[in-house]
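Sequence, please.
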């Protein structure tokens, strides 16, 4: 897995203090009880709208948009106790589907295969906390800077930074990425947290590098930290805040320091599928204006990441 398959891409600025993250995390807890059916995406009745009129004829005829997603990233997308796909993305997918008069059908896949799935037409869209970056738009590997594919287009729908968390009551003085020198971090492989750990480790002095243990998904990384196998973990802020508030009833983890670098999550569309991208963009603008988008974002307690318009390829 290369940097081109990461959920997010790092940059330079800090965006919010830990107090703001804690507030978001507290709000996330209140959202947990109302999520059992949000992944159904039932849009059985065809709706005539400006956005629906933009859909490609073949998708209108099928009445289904297949969405590739790594469904193990709560609260963005995950399985509830009944096995239902729930979270921010499934809820937004359901709202977009109603606007377009089709069903958003989420299909589980590993994160690093989602863009490939778009190219092979296994999926129509990829929606999985995927950061919109210029490298992804152009099909560039972020590590080697070499062309590895034709790239994708993005409809941006949310903004997120990245946070560090530790076992509760055992932060070991960790407040910044520099404080991780000489310590071990558990992260999901190929994510911005993984990339940040690699870049920050190069800055460490005195031979005290950051040790990294990587996992296929974020839940496995959390398990490793919980068991004492690492000193810290790192995830996108909604995910870290959700883990802190829900794991062990809020007794397992605590957030430390500040979240860094806000970047847009984008709904990925294969290059050349301009009509579908425009339809999704129009549908997102419609649910933002109607207030449905705001209701979903508020339900999950992540208002800090809300957008006010649907941008196409707004990442840098």
């Amino acid at each position: 897995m290369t940097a081109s398959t990461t959920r997010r891409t790092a940059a330079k600025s800090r965006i919010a203090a830990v107090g703001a993250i804690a507030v978001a995390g507290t709000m996330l807890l209140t959202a947990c009880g109302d999520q059992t059916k949000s992944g159904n995406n039932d849009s059985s009745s065809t709706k005539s709208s400006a956005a629906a009129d933009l859909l490609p004829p073949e998708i209108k005829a099928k009445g289904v948009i297949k969405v590739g997603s790594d469904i193990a990233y709560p609260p963005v997308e995950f399985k509830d106790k009944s096995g239902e796909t729930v979270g921010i993305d499934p809820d937004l997918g359901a709202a977009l589907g109603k606007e377009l008069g089709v069903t958003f059908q989420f299909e589980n896949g590993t994160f690093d295969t989602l863009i490939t799935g778009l190219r092979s037409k296994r999926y129509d869209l990829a929606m999985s906390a995927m950061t919109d970056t210029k490298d992804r738009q152009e099909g560039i590997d972020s590590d080697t800077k070499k062309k590895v594919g034709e790239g994708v287009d993005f409809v941006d729908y949310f903004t997120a930074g990245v946070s560090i968390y530790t076992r509760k009551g055992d932060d070991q003085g960790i407040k910044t990425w520099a404080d991780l020198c000489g310590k071990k971090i558990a992260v999901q492989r190929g994510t911005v947290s993984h990339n940040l750990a690699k870049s920050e480790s190069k800055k460490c002095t005195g031979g005290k590098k950051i040790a990294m243990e990587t996992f296929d998904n974020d839940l496995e990384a959390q398990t490793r930290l919980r068991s004492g196998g690492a000193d810290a973990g790192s995830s996108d802020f909604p995910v870290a805040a959700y883990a802190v508030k829900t794991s062990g009833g809020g007794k397992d983890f605590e957030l430390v320091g500040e979240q860094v670098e806000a970047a847009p999550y984008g709904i990925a569309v294969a290059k050349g599928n301009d009509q579908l991208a425009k339809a999704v963009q129009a549908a997102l603008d419609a649910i933002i204006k109607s207030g449905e988008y705001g209701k979903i974002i508020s339900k999950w307690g992540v208002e800090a990441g809300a957008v006010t318009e649907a941008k196409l390829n707004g990442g840098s």
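Residues 1-5, 9-47 have pLDDT under 50 and may be disordered.
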